[in-house]
Design brief:
The chain has about 90 residues and is an all-beta fold. It is built from no helices and seven strands. It has one domain. Strand 6 and strand 7 form a beta hairpin.
Length: about 90
Amino acid sequence: MVSQLPCADVNDDMTYDPMLKRVYISGSQGLSIFRQDSPDKYTELLRIPTNGAKTSIYVPSEKLFFAAHPKGVLDDAGLLVFRVNP
């Protein structure tokens, strides 16, 4: 292990973008985005709420991140689409 950082809890997906050197982790508490500063150092850039969306996919060629959230007490199930900025 080279690093350990807190992130969105109860995660289901993790994606690495080698061009932007970012790690995307989706979990029930949101989407955590980390930047890889060096092989052993990572910095959390952002944590975004996702209505409990754990299942996700990142499409690097389109710079889009998709996350599907379940039906909840306040809203129906849905698809969230995030545009990734370099």
